[in-house]
Amino acid sequence: MRILVTGGAGFIGSALVRHLIANTEHQVLNLDKLTYAGDLRSLQGAAASNRYQFVQADICDGAAVRAALTEFRPEVVTHLAAESHVDRSIDGPGTFIQTNVVGTFSMLSEVLAYWKGLDAAAREAFRFHHISTDEVFGSLGDDGFFTETTAYDPRSPYSASKASSDHLVRAWQHTYGLPTLITNCSNNYGPYHFPEKLIPLMVIKSLAGEPLPVYGQGANVRDWLYVDDHARALTRVFEAGRPGESYIIGGRAERTNLDVVHTICDALDRLRPRKDGRSYRDQIAFVADRPGHDHRYAIDPTKLERELGWKAQESFDTGIEKTVRWYLDNEAWWRPIQDGAYSGQRLGLAVG
Which of 39, 83, 114, 158 is catalytic? Predict the structure, then answer.
């Protein structure tokens, strides 16, 4: 198939593109604005393929999106382009509304017009796949799991913007008949992750001998999903998912933030011990919590497993081991980011 991926130079998008080029026969057009978190270096292997194309464009630019659709003629549009960092949404929510809400509206408008121009068989086969987050469901207590029927209860500007985009996608399906799919995933981790996020930030700060900032007491719980497992799930959904359905994707790997940091430190203690013989755990420093920090996210991916046959291949322990090794072996990828776009400073402290 011909797959148009928006945000294909980002963390999850680039993992999907790499997977599609390496493990399928699909053709891929990557449409990405190349904001601070977009990096074409994450696609060097895929970019050498004659099944890969790239166009630099903003999803809010209807004319650019229209041109990409007209020239590439996709059978699937998988929409990942988004602002994604909660802390940045606290400091500057306007960008999140523009990209995640207005940008998704722009995509839907252009895709609908394109879809209406297809013949009947092509319209039947077409899919618009919107990639979202479990954060739209709000915060869980100590028990229970998110499922596809969990009510929406977003708590941050980021999650509110993604909830809005989810609702737009459903509205376009119900009102106009556009064949849509929605997936909501848990926290991703793995190679090529921009260093503002927890796991790469902890690895890089550990290696620099800096304090490892843990919000509050580190008791907030997240369900972790290795990014290559997510890419396989996304592919399975747009290849075999039923239009109008949503599927949630999780790794069945709940951990507190402090447990995650401990696991990273322990891996580094084995793979690159500190010269003074002490543990990297000694660098942990508890800091003021994020405003409105959700207590717990946990996903029950039974529907995806049962209906589409997907299961995560990586456990948290094997995934973290691979991730830490990748950052140790690929300083040439993350060092220029640290020296330029993001140097590890605290984000998300703005209030009001």
Answer: 158
Active site residue 280: no
Q: How many CB atoms lie within 10 A of CB 120?
A: 7
User: Which position among 134, 166, 294, 314 bears the catalytic label?
Assistant: 134
The answer to whether 99 and 60 are in contact (CB under 8 A) is yes
Looking at the DSSP bridge assignments, the partners of residue 28 are 3, 52
Domain 2-193+224-253+293-309: give its CATH code: 3.40.50.720
Give CA separation, 266 vs 206, 260, 334, in Å. 11, 10, 21
Provide, rounded to the nearest whole percent, the portion of the chain with pLDDT above 90.
90
Q: Is 135 an annotated catalytic residue?
A: yes
Element (H, E) at 160: helix 157-176
Whole-angstrom distance, CA of residue 272 vs CA of residue 58:
41
Given 32, 135, 196, 314, which residue is catalytic?
Answer: 135
Question: Quick check: 33 and 74 in contact, CB under 8 A?
Answer: no
Q: What is the pTM of this model?
A: 0.96
- Residue spans per domain, the chain: 2-193+224-253+293-309
pLDDT at residue 161, rounded to an integer: 98
Which of 79-93, 281-295, 310-324: highest mean pLDDT? 310-324
Transcribe 19-51 into DSSP letters: HHHHH---EEEEEE---TT--GGGGHHHHTSTT
**How far is Cα 308 from Cα 301, in angstroms, rounded to an integer?**
11
Pair 333, 200: CB distance under 8 Å: no
CA angle 174/303/74 to nearest 5° reads 50
Run of H or E including 56: strand 52-56
- 176 labelled catalytic: no
